[in-house]
Amino acid sequence: MAASINNSIIFMMVALLSLSNISTSHGARSLLQLPNLPTIPSLPKPTMPQLPNFPVTLPTMNPLPNMPSLPNIPTFSPPPSN
Fold first, then answer.
1. What is the CA radius of gyration of the chain?
2. How far apart are alpha carbons 47 and 70 in whole angstroms?
3. What start and end residues bound the annotated signal peptide (predicted)?
């Protein structure tokens, strides 16, 4: 019983897919038979306004403080072997 239901579902899916392909091919054929669309005219390139001149010199800032030196990490020697 379950096998016949699965087979019928698969058959319905194949039938629907083949019918949808037929309608798609008819739509593509009708599009190919239409006359060509008019071409889009080329538009003139817009001219951009000139940007205003900005001062090139940057304001001076106080210098950053020096970084303090890091302390040395103490090293430990291994214990003497006997």
1. 40
2. 58
3. 1-27
Instruction: Identify the residue whose tokens are 């001219």.
Output: 47
Q: How far apart are CA 64 and CA 44, in angstroms?
A: 52
pLDDT in tens, 24-50: 677 777 778 888 888 888 989 889 888
What single string gives the DSSP state of each residue in the chain?
Answer: -HHHHHHHHHHHHHHHHHHHHHHHHHHHHHHHTSPPPPPPPPPPPPPPPPPPP---PPPP-PPPPPPPPPPPPP--PPPPP-
Question: Model's pTM, two decimal places?
Answer: 0.27
